[in-house]
Amino acid sequence: IAPSLWRMSWDFFVPLCVGDLVKTGGINQYVVQDVVPHKQLPPYICKFKAALRSQGPLCILEHFDTGYSVLHVKEDTLELLLQVVSGLAASLPALLVSTSISAAERKEKLNAVKMSVYLLCKLSETFESDSCRQCIVTAPGKGKAGGDGLLQWDSERENVLQALLQLLQLDIRSLWSLSLVEEEFISCVTCCCYKLLENPTISHVKSKPTRDCIIHLLGVLIKKYNHLLGASVKVIQLLQHFEQLSSVFAQAVSVWSTEYGVRAIIGEVIREIGQRSSEELAREASGVKAFSSFIAELGSLVPELMLPNISVLIAHLEGESHTMRVAVCEVLGEILVRVLCGDGLDDSGKADRDRFFDTLQEHLHDTHSHVRARVLQVYARIVNSKALPLCKYSEVMELAVGRLMDKSINVVKSAIQLLAAFIAHNPYSCKVTKSNMNNTIAIFFFSDFTISLKYLSKSHYLKDFFLPYCQLANNMICEISSVFPLCRNAVRLCIRAHGCFPESERFASLSTLTPETLMGTLALIFKGKAFTHQNLPPTPQKEVAEEENGELKKQEMLVQYLKDTETFALQVERAISVINSMLYWKTTSVVQEAVQFCVTVCEFSVANSVSGVRKMLPLVWSTDTAIKDAVVQAYRRLYLNPQGETIRVKAHTLVDSLSELMVDASLGTIQCLEEIEFFGGGSNLQSTVVQVLWERFTGKRETSGLHRRAAVLLLGMAAREVVLSNLDTLCSVALGEKVTEDFLLARDSVLTICSITDHVRQSKGAPFRLPQDHQLFTCLTQAIAEGVVMEDPYWQSFMEPAVRLLYFLSESPDQLCSRLLQRCARLLLDQIVECGELESNEQVNCVCLAQLLALCGCVAFWQVSHLERSVSAELRRRRGEREEREEKEKGPSSKAKVRSAMEEELGLIGASAEDTEAELIRNICETELLAEENLLCAFLPLLVRVCSSPGHYSHPQLTTAACLALSQYMMISPSVCEENVRLMFTVLERSTLPVVRANAIIALGDLTVRFPNILEPWTQNLYARLSDEVPSVRQTAVTVLTQLVLKDVLKVKGQVSEVAVLLIDPEHHITSLALNFFNELASKDNAIYNLLPDIISRLSDPERGMTSEDFNTIMKRLFSYITKERQTESLVEKLCQRFRTAKTERQWCDLAMSLSLLSMCERGFKRLQECWECYSDKLTEPGVYQPLLSITAKLRRGAKAQFKAQVDEFEKRLTAVHTRGLENVENLNTFFDRRSAFGTGQAKPSVSGRGDDSFVTPQKSRKSKKPVITFSSEEDEEDEEGECCHFINSSGITDRENVLKDSYYTFSFFRHDQFLFCQTKYLCHLKMTCIYFLFTQLYLGLQRHIFIK
Asked: For residue 1279, what is the enclosing H or E element?
């Protein structure tokens, strides 16, 4: 047969399976005749190549069998098939547009297309399968992923897709009859595309060209070849199995719906997802995640196309899958930001927008924290895009502030970000606060007073709003009336102007001088023509009514705006206060968000924003590097980005901002700012800043005292070398003749010098000191001496750093301070002599005497510090230099070398010398500092007298200074401390001044560190101040004790219960300090665990009188630190043993409540069972029974079946004892156990042999108990008799009447309050023994005695 006739005689049908082509087909169906073996393929492939060169792409019709055979030898055939398909794509356009194409030619081209496409797709699928299989087998990073063929496929994959896309973009449908492309052909191409999409790397960036080709190829098939339904089904199927395809298919669906116009694909896919039930989604965890990611990303790409189908997805908001709820909320957010936004919405759009906002607000209270966090993030995006309607601001912001208290950290962080977005994009005034709003509303009411009064009667809305501000407006009117003389001048000038310009339009109405015309003229001058209505022509009544209605609506709109502004201001203040408290949370990410929020509110000049900026400043000392870096960057962002055109302007801006920060800054704040290092590195701006600071400090530029003080402190940070080199200038400006006029400037100057010299003194070598006659010391001593006899309240704050500086820089500070004390004492005596008798001016002398005593104490303290630090360090330095010099002069002998090596190994080198130096310092403190010839000794009796006679020396400042100075004297030596420690504790307990008690606590804390053995017996007195009636004293006490305990100065004992009481202190800051104490204490091994039993006993003591609610609150906090299983088990036993020594019912209840707070496990429950005898007799009390019952409820949750059965048995036991009494239950169980024992001849039944109703706890003791039978009765004899019959019958005694005749015994029990009263009449016959055992049980308190007759 001729080749052309042979080609026309058959049709090629794309098979479903590869093997179908070798089977006998239908009439005129092509069948592969010859499958060439692999070894014989090379010559056939060469023929295929030759035919391709000679015949073109139609050669596939003759050599299809060769291509079919090489599906398993792929590398050599891929290029041939690519050329075939490319050739078809190049040759078909001309054929398709031709009108004279014959049927045979059409059939020939169609078969060539189907054959080539089929072979290329199947070959591609085979390559892709091998590639994925090789990637799975080969470990990542270990050699090549495959052979050369696979590497070639990675580079050829895109070419194959481009060839198919080029071919299918042609209108090849005309090759088929009636232009109906067979489904198998489309399926062949789509299967290849979907197979390629299953590659794990398809979503990577490097696969973007391949991904785009597949998307466009499928888009062509969907648009031209009716693959819409198949594509939607395949998208759902692949998303279920391949999670990485969510972003790929989102992009694909977006392209298909926009570029190819197939919008129905979105509806099909969304409908398929929406019809999934919650049960199906619960079974497909990975599929749910893929669906949610797909929906969310598709919503971000085409939100306008998602809007018509959103009703299908909203049903998932009620489902169990939180990931689907998150995805739907994100889609709603995208629609609200990009579709339903702006003022041009119609009524339907506004209704949809409000409905979507309501839906998002509902899910701010979603049960899953991830949903709540994502909804807050969606709102943040909406606010940042300015798509939130003004009417929704208050509602959403209130919800966001409420979410700050959420338990989830992610929700809290998202809420902080949303609030920051609200502040950054708020439509109200940034500097709005509640107080400012009140003034604003009052000013508005007053400025339009006549208008406001006019409309108040017409609108209840305006009336209800303005009435609270009427009084404020009246107050403002009163304030304005104080400047009424200025108004008189305005009236006088107005009348004179009318006389000068009678024809002027402004003053024409004054021709008739009346109050109305005068006020109208003034209104015309100051407000303009819009506010004058006198000269307007009369307006018709209808127009007047319409104008008034319009004005009324404007007034109501303005009032609504003011109300919204007021609400917003309140919410901002609340949010700032809450977020400021988060700055010291333990979670690093929350602290970082809080820091960023503080920066945001400060940048937008929100009122009270500086409080958060200052509060976060101590975080520069945080051990967490991330928090420290966040704070440092925040301060640099706020203060080191000055605005200005020139460097000079920038320098002034920078100095102004830093000066505001330094105003009234404490010493701790200054140290924190130094840690930030604002002025790092040299620059033109820094030199200009230093110049501006010097100008302000020296007074060259007129500035306030606050800014002068800030300038000198900033100079200490910015230019230490400059300040040190200009020390004389600093002294003359701040410490010169006018020093007594501004002690605060002098104080800050001294602090600046101290901070600079601290850095200099830290360097090695000889210490940096100045001679005694230096100008600095002359100015300091002069200022201190002159201030002693003055009543300046800031003198002491200057004196303390000044004395410190004297000891740091002077060569002989002891001599200098001795002369200073003499001079001050002489000045005070001279003042007393000049004033006459003491009684005539007692108040002035008390203040001066207090200042002198404060100076004495400060000198004593720094004298000790000078000896122990500076002198000791100097001795060590000199000793080291001397040893180095001796080693250089003379090398050590061999014996000395051996000895020194041995001493070095034992750590003894230098130890003896250091001990000698330390002993020398101690002797000086003990014998010389308070010797008679030393001036400090002269003031000690005076200090003791003032402190011990508070009735005679009642001046507050004098008492405070004397007590503080005495404590500083006690630091000198142990003998002075021991002599006056009783007096100091007496002052601590009996002083009526809170400041004296607080200072005494701090001083005694320092003394405890210095002389722990002397202060150890007085520890209880320190703990007693935790219950002081003044909050400041309690705060000081808990702060001092926290430091002492955490530094292991004080041993942790039962007194810690006093700190636990502060957990319920009414003052929030004291509660925070107590909580911090236990947080730090919990870091020590088993510290809280060891203390808990003693704390419980002390807090439940009846003498303390603590309520059960407070006790429970404290215990909940403390038991939260017990997390180890072994600790819980041990505590169960300890608390149960405490039942034996507890005396009152309240103590029983507290112990039971404590047991219920433990996170009990199986081992703890076992220990609770073993301790049954400790608490079983207390179970009749509801306060004991209910907490123990709650333990069983907790244990039952999630317990295994066997353990749950044990819990149920224990609960039955508790309930039985609670309802019937312990003695009844034990009598019942004991009788059955004894009957079983006598019947079987065993002394004690085994635990396993007991029935399910047995309530007898197994005993660990090996000693067998004697048989005991106890009987209990009810008050009614009939019940007793019936119960007795039950016992006798169960014991095998059937002849009840004979038994009653033989033996009848009566027993009586009496108890008052704690004793049980009962009267029992029982007969007991023991059939197996012929001996009657009668047992009586007597309860005395918690001890049980058994008497046997």
From this structure: helix 1277-1290
Strand extents, DSSP E, 991-1095: none
Q: Which residues pair with 1347 in a beta bridge?
A: 1336
Report the distance separating Cα 560 and Cα 722, nearest Å: 58
Q: CA-CA distance, 1336 to 1349, in Å (whole number)? A: 8
What 3-state DSSP class applies to 29? strand
- Determine the Cα–Cα distance for residues 175 and 110; give it in Å rounded to an integer: 6
| Cβ density class 498-512: b for 16+ within 10 Å, e for less | beeeeeeeebebbee
How far is Cα 488 from Cα 903, in angstroms, rounded to an integer?
98
Other Cβ atoms within 10 Å of 50 Cβ, number = 12
Query: Rounded to whole angstroms, how far apart are CA atoms 777 and 165?
Result: 93
* DSSP secondary structure letter of residue 23: S
Cα separation, 563 vs 180, whole angstroms:
68
Best CA proximity match to 755, nearest among 794, 795, 800, 724:
724
Tell me which residue has tokens 């295994």: 1200
- In the numeric block, which tokens belong to residue 84? 């075939």
Burial class (CB in 10 A: 0-12, 13-18, 19+), 921: middle
Residue 770: φ, ψ to 5°: -110, 155
User: Where do the H-state alpha helices sit in 842-909?
Assistant: 842-865, 872-889, 894-906
Phi–psi pair at 1245, nearest 5 degrees: -70, 150
- Calculate mean pLDDT across residues 293-302: 90
Q: What is the dihedral of CA 1231, 1235, 1238, 1239, to 10 degrees?
A: -170
On the 0-12 / 13-18 / 19+ scale of CB atoms within 10 A, 167 is buried
Alpha helix ranges (H) inside 971-1086: 974-990, 994-1010, 1012-1015, 1019-1024, 1031-1046, 1056-1061, 1068-1082
Amino acid type, 1005: G
Token reading at 47 = 């023929």
Q: Which H/E stretch holds residue 1305?
A: strand 1305-1309
Please provide residue 1049's backbone torsions phi and psi, each rounded to the nearest 5 degrees.
Answer: -80, -40
pLDDT in tens, 1174-1190: 888 888 888 888 888 88
Entry field: residues in the chain = 1349
> Cα–Cα distances in Å, from 721 out to 667, 733, 756?
21, 18, 8
In this prediction, residue 1233 carries a pLDDT of 44
Whether this prediction's pTM lies above 0.90 is answered by no
Strand bridging mode 1335-1340 / 1318-1322: unpaired
556: tokens are 């109501």
Look up residue 423 and give its amino acid.
I
Using one digit for the tens of pLDDT, what is the confidence trace for 769-803?
Answer: 888 888 888 999 999 999 888 888 899 999 999 99
In one-letter notation, the amino acid at residue 948 is S
Token couple for 841: 């001016």
At 1338, give phi and psi (nearest 5°).
Answer: -120, 130
- Structure letter (DSSP) for residue 397: H
* Contact in structure between 520 and 506 (CB atoms under 8 Å): no
Burial 776-788 (b: 16+ CB within 10 A, else e): bbebbbbbbbbbb
Tokens (6 digits) for 818 = 């001795």
- Whether the CB-CB separation of 36 and 65 falls below 8 Å is answered with yes
Summarised one tens digit per residue, pLDDT across range 192-213 is 888 888 888 888 888 888 888 8
- Helix (H/G/I), strand (E/B), else coil: 753: helix
Q: How many CB atoms lie within 10 A of CB 982?
A: 10
Number of Cβ within a 10 Å radius of residue 966:
28
Residue 866 makes CB contacts below 8 A (sequence gap 6+) with: 807, 813, 814
At 1347, give phi and psi (nearest 5°): -105, 135
C-alpha 699/C-alpha 705 separation (Å) is 10
CA distance 58 to 48: 11
- The position carrying tokens 């353990």 is 1203
DSSP 867: I
Can you tell me the distance from the alpha carbon of 785 to that of 783, in angstroms, rounded to the nearest whole number? Answer: 6
